[in-house]
Amino acid sequence: MNDVWATWQQASCMPDHCFCEGIHFGDLIRQPSNTWSNLSFIFFAAVIAVQARRLREGENPLTRIKTLPYLYAASCLLVGLGSFFFHASLTFVGQWVDVLGMYLAVTFFTLYNFYRIYQWKLQTFVILFFCTNASLGYVLYAQAWSRRYLFGLFVLILLASILYAARKIKASFNHRYLYQAIASFLAGVTIWVLDLTKVLCDPAFALQGHALWHFLAGLSTYLIYKYYSSQSA
Q1: Which of 41, 66, 124, 171 has CB atoms 3.0–4.6 Å from 218's, for a disulfide?
Q2: Which CATH number, 2.160.20, 1.20.1070, 1.10.287, 1.10.260, labels domain 32-229?
Q3: Global pTM?
Q4: What are the tens digits of pLDDT across the range 111-121?
């Protein structure tokens, strides 16, 4: 059987550094476990979109302005679709869309914190969101090797912006969601590293460590949304 992805530019992790799962050359889906597990991102994106339909009065922009949660839900959806395509194809295009979706998800609440602190107009937030990620998308294309370092950097910036916003804005949150989001993300990152370095690895096993990372990361994106949705004056 011909490999439908063979004529595409291959991902930078090819041929032997695309996580633990064995590569099914010649199949439409090269890494089944790592591909189908992205349905968790799509599920959580759908849950966020449904919950965003119920607007509430108050000071919380995330529950008062539909554009914000819908934009975040779309970002989470792109994470799922991009990662699905990446692991199915293991192509450079798939890698680019996959990582760009991750940038969208993590930069959303970083910029949202400053949106709240400095009371930006919604238009300003949206423009900065797209301009920031367009720039990151270019860097991702031109310097693919930097993708993981940039993502880690923006995760740290997000955490710093959360702390900064907490000092600047006196508001009440359900911090249980934040702690759960961090715990879920850290557990996922641990599994991600063990899978990537093949410390815990069985290439033929039906449930891969990277697939568990997808679920835990998806859960984390939902829990951070719940944290910000819980804001009350």
Answers
A1: 41
A2: 1.20.1070
A3: 0.93
A4: 999 999 999 99
